[in-house]
Design a protein that fits this description.
There is one protein chain. About 30% of the residues lie in helices and about 15% in strands. The chain is α/β, with parallel strands linked by helices. It has one domain: Glycoside hydrolase/deacetylase (TIM Barrel). The radius of gyration is 20 Å and the shape is globular. The N terminus is likely disordered.
Length: about 450
């Protein structure tokens, strides 16, 4: 059975890489508003059932999700140029949004109520990652999955360099949930922008993580096994090293690294905001197999996940749906998308608590007027995030569409010019990638 799982994973990886190569550098939306085929770069398996469509290794939020869409020239979620130009207009055109406090978190950061804050009217960046590569020697070991890891993931060293540069470039983390408010008018929900106030000279950025589920394939290829709470009550990772050592650490994954960075640099966060975690459900959440409801240890897994979720929410992290089975919303039928969404709400939202944010798998998207868009709204998702080459935010009367930029191996190696406003990709790139991969040839 083990050889069969490996063969399936390799096949999916090849499909992902092939799709990415075919569309790399073309982040434009097609006539129906979707990102081209490369958005499947995460390797979310095509044509798989809702339960299994995520067995492939790169299901993250990069437009190619798990390798989501690459940064490139071209359009955004609406097919336009991706520019943000100010406050919301009555007809729902693009504009810049605002932010508010994150209540009750212990994450530190600058308070929205500080008197020295000033109104901000520029673009809002949104970048996303997949879980970090902890053990490069497993990720870049020359096997048939190495290419996917090289394309769609970043190492611990790269992530630390990126957030350090973001801080030096005066970016400040904000909570996506706080840039808008939901109102009711004539029995209908409406999204309204809220004023964003930041310290003078600061620029807002939303950070999200796709597929922090720790899928089975990740356990063999250099990622962590799960999130845990350490002896000090803080979020840490549990992993098994290539030598078989069982390690608990706060220094090798996005969540604890960012938590500690904000403690040292509170002006990197507004109201303690950290990031948005977009979860699927087909292999549980955060390393806990909550999808196996009939398993004898289900309750233990569920309670373990709930402890992590509660701690994350209290320290500035929030959650989004990434679909239960990591399906391509543009390609699947309405009934299948509706069933997938209902299953996510039943198995995952009951753990994370309510969210109105939907992060499209594969960086794909559906647009207003499409019955599938209406179905997502009906399910309670009023903020819908795709992937694009530049900051993009569009307000509709009943919803908000936002693009994210994927930060991964492809971006670091081929999209350097698009990242210079945030960091120097050449300086960030971890030489261990090339050293390990070259040594295998």
């Amino acid at each position: 059975m083990k050889w069969l799982k490996i063969a399936i994973a390799v096949m999916l990886m090849n499909l992902i890489v092939a799709g990415c190569k075919a569309t790399q550098g073309s982040g434009d939306r097609t006539s129906d508003g979707s990102v081209p085929e490369w958005s499947a770069a995460t390797g979310k398996g095509k044509g798989q059932s809702t339960q299994m469509s995520n067995t492939d290794p790169f299901k993250s939020g990069i437009s190619p999700q798990g390798g989501e869409a690459a940064i490139s020239e071209g359009g955004d979620a609406s097919g336009s140029s991706g520019k943000i130009d100010g406050r919301p207009t009555p007809d729902g055109s693009s504009h810049n949004a605002g932010s508010s406090a994150v209540p009750g978190n212990e994450g530190g950061g600058i308070s929205q109520t500080d008197e020295d804050l000033v109104p901000y009217h520029g673009p809002i960046e949104h970048i996303f990652f997949h879980p970090l590569v902890i053990y490069p020697e497993l990720a870049f070991d020359g096997d048939r999955m190495s290419r996917g890891y090289d394309d769609w993931f970043v190492t611990v060293k790269e992530f630390k360099a990126i957030i350090d540069s973001l801080y030096k470039h005066n970016f400040m983390l904000i909570d996506l949930n706080s840039i808008y408010e939901l109102q009711e008018a004539d029995g209908k929900k409406q999204t309204k922008a809220k004023e964003l106030r930041l310290p003078k000279g600061k620029k807002p950025i939303v950070l999200s993580i796709d597929d922090m589920n720790y899928y089975d394939y990740m356990l063999q290829n250099g990622n962590a096994n799960k999130l845990v709470i350490d002896d000090n009550g803080e979020i840490a990772t549990y992993s098994v090293s290539p030598k078989g050592e069982k390690i608990t650490s706060r220094d090798n994954e996005i969540v604890p690294i960012l938590d500690d960075f904000v403690k040292v640099h509170p002006d990197f966060s507004l109201n303690g905001a950290k990031g948005l975690i977009a979860l699927t459900g087909y292999e549980g959440v955060l390393g806990y197999r909550t999808n196996k409801k009939d398993a004898p240890n289900y309750e233990e897994e569920k309670q373990g996940a709930l402890r992590i979720i509660d701690r994350l929410k209290s320290t500035g992290w929030s959650f989004a749906s990434h679909g239960y089975g990591h399906l391509d919303a543009r390609k699947v039928g309405l009934d299948r998308l509706t069933e997938d969404t209902a299953r996510w709400k039943d198995e995952v939202e009951t753990l994370t608590g309510p969210t109105n944010i939907y992060v499209y798998p594969f960086g794909s998207s559906v647009l207003p007027g499409d019955p599938k868009y209406a179905a997502l709204l009906k399910a309670g998702f009023t903020v819908l995030c795709s992937v694009g080459p530049a900051p993009y935010l569009k307000w509709m009367p009943d919803s908000l569409m936002m693009d994210r930029r994927h930060i991964d191996g492809i971006a670091l190696k081929t999209q350097q010019s698009k990242l210079v406003d945030m960091f120097d990709a050449n300086e960030v790139l971890d030489p261990v990638r090339a050293e390990l991969l070259d040594s295998m040839h």
